[in-house]
Amino acid sequence: MVRQAFRDPTVFWAYIGTKMGVFAIAAIATWPLARLIGPRAWIGLGVFGGLLVILTLAVLFGPSSKAPSDDDVDGSREVADDEEPIDPEMPVEIPVEDSIDLHSFPPRDVPDVVDAYLEVAVEKGFNEVRLIHGRGIGVQRDRVQKLLARHPLISGFHDAPADRGGWGATIAYLKPRP
């Protein structure tokens, strides 16, 4: 994909010009140091510039991988005979365990996720669950613990012990199922 962009002469020369500009800025910025150190610094700068040019040419003209097809670009692909197509509207069943890591959920969804998780955890018969909200500055922890304080399925909660996440997780005790 990158190499295709460089087939356009304008893009190619803009890239080369940018590399030369970076090299020139590096030379100007190191001028006082080079005067202090002596000619060896200029040799090092020349080697650096040469490596920069070689790397640029290797990227532009080196062996390339397969060019993306139209299917790759628009995101569609063929489905194998033994593979079922994925329906984005179909819900995905996630196994429920005695802990849930809330990092993978957007913060705005966390209250709904926790509520749904607690309901399923009670149905599964868990007595205690661990909600991993992360340490951070404590915003997510406060939100989770406020939700737990008023949740009808919770009999109590506290910060997890150090070996189970410390203040980056909360242990919640579930009321028994009626």
Overview of this protein structure:
It is a single chain. The chain has about 180 residues and is an alpha+beta fold. It has two domains: about 1-60; about 100-175, 2-Layer Sandwich (Ribosomal Protein S8, Chain: A, domain 1). The protein is about 50% helix and about 10% strand. It contains seven helices and four strands, in the order H-H-H-H-H-E-H-E-H-E-E. The protein has helices at about 1-5, 10-30, 30-35, 40-60, 70-75, 110-125, 140-150; strands at about 100, 130, 155-160, 170-175. Strands 1-2-4-3 form a four-stranded mixed beta sheet, covered by helices on one side. Helix 2 (about 10-30) packs antiparallel against helix 4. It starts with a helix and ends with a strand. The mean pLDDT is about 80.
Features:
4-stranded mixed sheet; alpha+beta; Ribosomal Protein S8, Chain: A, domain 1; 7 helices; elongated; 178 residues; 4 strands; 2 domains
Helicity level, as a percent range? 40-55%
Tell me the total number of β-strands. 4
Structural class label: alpha+beta
The largest sheet is:
4 strands, mixed
Distance between the termini: 60 Å
What is the second-level CATH architecture of the largest domain?
A: 2-Layer Sandwich
What would you report as the Rg, rounded to the nearest angstrom? Answer: 29 Å
- Determine and state the CATH class of the largest domain: Alpha Beta
Number of domains: 2
CATH topology of the largest domain: Ribosomal Protein S8, Chain: A, domain 1
- Separate helix tally: 7
Oligomer: single chain
Lateral arrangement of strands in the main beta sheet: 1-2-4-3
Mean pLDDT, to the nearest integer, reads 78
- The helix/strand series, from N terminus to C terminus, equals HHHHHEHEHEE
Low-confidence stretches are none
Give the overall shape.
elongated
Strand proportion: 5-15%
